[in-house]
Amino acid sequence: MTSSEIRTRFLEFFKKRGHTIIPSASLVTSDEKGVTNPTLFNTAGMQPLIPYLLGKPFLDNDGKEIKRLADAQKCLRTVDIDEVGDTVHATFFEMLGNWSLGDYFKKEAINWSYEFLTSKEEGLGLDPKRLYITVFEGDGNAPRDDEAAEIWASTLGLSTTATSRSPTSAVGRIFFMSADKNWWEAGNDGPCGPDSEMYYDVANRFGGREIAQEEFVDADEKKDLVEVWNDVFMQYEKKDGKIIGKLPKPSVDTGAGLERLAMTLQKVDNIYDIDLLKPVMEKIKELSKNWDIKSARIFADHIRASVFLTADGVIPGNTDRGYVLRRLIRRFVRHADTLGINQNAAASVFGKIIDVYADTYDDLKKQDKNIRSVLVAEETKYRETANKGFHELRRRLKDKGTFSTNDLFDFYQSYGLSKEQLKETLSELPIKFDEKDFDDLVKNHQALSRAGAEKKFKGGLADANDPMVVRYHTATHLLHQALHDILGNEVSQKGSNITPERLRFDFSYPSKMTDEQKKKVEEIVNEKIALKLTVNQVVMPSEEAVKTGAYHFFNEKYPEQVSVYYIGDDIDHAYSKEFCGGPHVANTGELAGPEGKWKFKLKKEEAVAQGVRRIRAVLE
Question: How far apart, in Å, are the Cα atoms of 585 and each of 115, 221, 417, 619?
């Protein structure tokens, strides 16, 4: 069954069951009022529908309220970008979804999911004996979803003994899992609730028998079992990361990843061999001089995502959505180089993607020239930046004669030079490359990135996946200390908010800052940036941390052990030190940007409350 047939069958199935078919929304999230803290992109099919899941009526052109919807939604997710290249992960994908907006609930959703997956006449015709189910086990936020488990047992024609509650229980087909597996939410605000996931034994490892939970977990990890469907039961609402109550009208968000369904039905063991990506992979192989399957998959995935982002109006840049696109392009160019496709990588491959999707997304064909122009220009610009990085690396090596691993990691971050490129350059010189330490730095960087990935805001800090956010976080520490230097100890932090475009810092002070004071604060911060001071972290008992003079919120309770970031060679003589969880740049020089030309600038200083001032500042 082709991907197009799967998509069509899905929409027709739910249309017959009273669902209105709606077109895919843009990859770019709506900024509609009432949608709090949106992610940068639609990472799931339900995101464009959040206002309606919260109770806003969905009206047709005649003003009639619609309560059942279905679509095929374009999605982009970078939280697991480091997993791309395996058999199932991708940054761009399509979600087939159907929704009940305060209409039907768990029973209908589960029954229809099962019917579509297994029906040979109207659905996909999967073997019901190779299906395994997970439901929410419950936690301090919400109770165990026994209701869903009982509906599944009835749907599958099983007794309750076919439900496995723990790895040591009897064998079964239905497994209770933690919130990490079976709880759905998008960010810190909005609808949320337990979900139920359907897994298919693609390898036919179990021959249709009931299994123990530890067998399920092992098969899931080895990708013998692949998630093919997910039913989300929107029962609760979150605000600032906490459940504030039940939704007045419980709703349903169900759906499946098109690529994973296609993989199952086309009997291949990875999404890169399905009909949507195979032509792209074949083109890459034709062009490749040094074949590497993982690099080819990353190239294929990232250029597909870049094509769709460009078609939806995203332009490469240093912040926000533009930075995500720039990162994807740079990554696929690096992997094209690994494959020996050293020039015109984008121009050589993007046309295949447009050919594959032209019938479904006709805007791709209409924007063919624009997409080519954007991708080719960004590839050219990146290659120029990388060449500057190589030149600067060689120049600094000539001057210094050696480099620390942190120095080399700076080139990885600032110029986008890959580990392989750095190793190749250093191989020309009598300098040892400490690969293990470098890998550790990269892993730490990735871990910090994942902590905030796909979230535009998280408390005072925005998406930690974005290097601009990390830069602004460090700049906020410098600003805080500079304000103490100029205004004195009347200053104390009252709050902060960071996005990829700017930092915002609230502090106590009784009067408006003068132009001279603002100028001096700017000069101090830029002086510390120019000094390229190291940024360090230490974990210590909170009482000892207070004695070091590290800034913290005096009325807040802290754990026995706290993290302190300090800027300088040692904590006793550091320029700045604060209680903080990170992340931060490795040294303040990174705040000057890849070419070292950015300056810290105060854009606005104003009163926001009695005795509280607010500063907005940028790096540009």
Answer: 51, 34, 17, 14
Give 511: exposed, middle or buried? Use CB within 10 Å, 0-12, 13-18, 19+. Answer: exposed
Q: Domain 3-273: give its CATH architecture.
A: 2-Layer Sandwich (3.30)
pLDDT tens string 552-608: 865 455 556 677 889 998 888 899 999 887 678 889 999 999 888 999 999 999 886
For CA atoms 161, 165, 170, 173, the dihedral sign is positive
Alpha-carbon distances of 300 from 76, 278, 280, 283, 293, rounded to whole Å: 14, 9, 6, 10, 10
Span 463-487, pLDDT tens digits:
444 688 889 999 999 999 999 999 9
User: Which of 170-184, 443-457, 518-532, 545-559: highest mean pLDDT?
Assistant: 518-532
Q: Is the dihedral of CA 274, 279, 284, 285 positive or negative?
A: positive
Looking at residue 287, its amino acid is: L
Supply the pLDDT for residue 453: 42
CA 109/CA 252 separation, integer angstroms: 7
Domains 3-273 and 461-619 share a fold: no
Question: 461-619 adopts what CATH topology?
Answer: Threonyl-tRNA Synthetase; Chain A, domain 2 (3.30.980)
pLDDT tens digit string along 264-299? Answer: 999 998 999 999 999 999 999 999 999 999 999 999
The CA distances from residue 586 to 14, 399, 478, 565, in Å, are 52, 21, 14, 11
Beta pairing class for 131-136 and 163-164: unpaired
- The first and second tokens of residue 502, run together, are 């700017």
Plot region of 165 (φ>0 → left; ψ -120 to 50 → alpha; else → beta): alpha
* Token output for 270: 């990875």
What DSSP letter does each residue of 136-168 carry, written as one string?
E---SSS---HHHHHHHHHHTT--GGGEE-STT
